[in-house]
Amino acid sequence: MADLHVSAAHDRRALREPSWIERDDAACAESCRGNDDGRLVPVDFGRKLSGRTFRVPIRIAPFAQSLCVRSLDGPRGRDHARDSGRTDQAIDGRFGASPVLTPDSLPRLQAMIAEQELDGWLLYDFKGRNPIASAVVGNWIAGTRRVFVKVPRKGMPIALIHEIDKELWLDWPKEWTKRVYIRREDLEGEVATLVNGERLALDYSPRGSVPYLDCVPAGLRDFLLDLGAELVPSIDLVTRFCSLWTPEDRASHVRAARRVAEIAISAMRVAGESSRLQEPMREYGLAVWIREAFDQAGLTTESGPSVSFGANAARNHYDPSGESSASLVPGQLLLIDLWAREPGGIYADQTWMAAIGAPCDRDAHLWQVVRQSRDGALDLLRQRVQTHTPVQGAELDRAAKCIIHEAGFGGNVASRTGHSIDRFGLHGFGPPIDDTETCDSRVLIPGVGFSVEPGIYLAGETGVRSEVNAWVGDGEVLITPVNYQAELVIL
User: Fold this and answer.
1) Residue whose C-alpha is closest to residue 428's, from 84, 89, 81
2) What whole-number distance in Å separates Cα of residue 491 and Cα of residue 334?
3) What is the pLDDT of residues 24-34, one digit of tens each?
4) Nearest-angstrom CA–CA distance, 68 and 80
5) Residue 293 DSSP label
6) What angle do CA 351, 13, 282 make, to 5 degrees?
7) pLDDT tens digits for 211-247?
8) Angle at 95 between CA 89 and CA 97, to 5 degrees
9) Domains plus CATH for the chain?
């Protein structure tokens, strides 16, 4: 895979950056039918959308009145979310995914609560600020007033909601309890009844050590303690109840990973051939090309991809634009970080590296160190899982970082080695591969998925990262894509 040769018959139209888009209403409607919500949004092209000008210039036929916003998103796709009223969490799938707490799943959760010797799990939310509560209970928890849901070890769940938000809870199962309050005195009394001096799981992290799970205000925790509650972090319940992949999740992820890898390889080929043209493609043009390839493959994404060339590859979360974007010319490294999933499926999140032209000795060495770091973490993961020996994500992070430190690049690390991936988003609720940014001691139990993506970043010069995904089974490890990058691609 070190050398990719592109057929001369490759469609050169793909090498040109997007310039003008002309659509009529019929064509626009056809395009929108393939988008997430199928909405046609009237657009005044003389104004800004969500406070930002369009990155792709638009010329529309005089008779066309509407254009699908998705076609204007650009690589990041955030304008669509803001303008349609959808939050970033909705795009992540946290509010969009089906709740995991149902009458069918309740016995499984109550068994977990009993195993941890808890009296229940107390979920709290105010205006959608607790994504864990939204994931467990469902969209209706994100109302305008404070809400509590208690899942007891035995018996039916109890929701404590405000009168104003009652209409949001029409789908709450009829056999489950729903209590309504108006006055703050009523709320305090009802919460005291829920707590009743019991041992309860709560979505908080001691000392804020795991921010993904630190979702309840400190003041509320103080209130519950004053009421006599014994509070335990819900971290293990969240992992087991929210983050474990089903067989369908795994199959969907594998399919998405294969398509994402194919698109990444094709994108590198496009970049390589474009680099020989008089007007090479720029980072932004390649990012748009990848988004269009996702659409054609039936994949969806919350944002991205991140296409970074040369010194820009050292800029984490770098987002090329139509106004500011490097040309893809020989002599530098190209980093492509891309993520997508089947609708309702599990994300595939990958980073691929290529050199346009022969790499210099430094860049070739950086790739070797990063690859060894990635493979060191994967080797430890396989060895532990296959021998049924517990392994923490933090241990994999240390294994990867050790190789980078020994190579002399310890000062050029920018982040943890990986993040959780589950049905609720690209960055899920499960254990990350992290002993750098947080202190998360969770074991990588069967069913969890995550990324492994060590990197080295030389500010103002270049950056190298290699990213694969892993899923832990019972004595087995799945790494995706199946044929992940072994050598630096030379274009």
Assistant:
1) 89
2) 10
3) 333 333 333 33
4) 9
5) H
6) 45
7) 989 999 999 999 999 999 999 999 999 999 999 999 9
8) 120
9) 12-86 (no CATH), 106-242 (3.40.350.10), 245-490 (3.90.230.10)
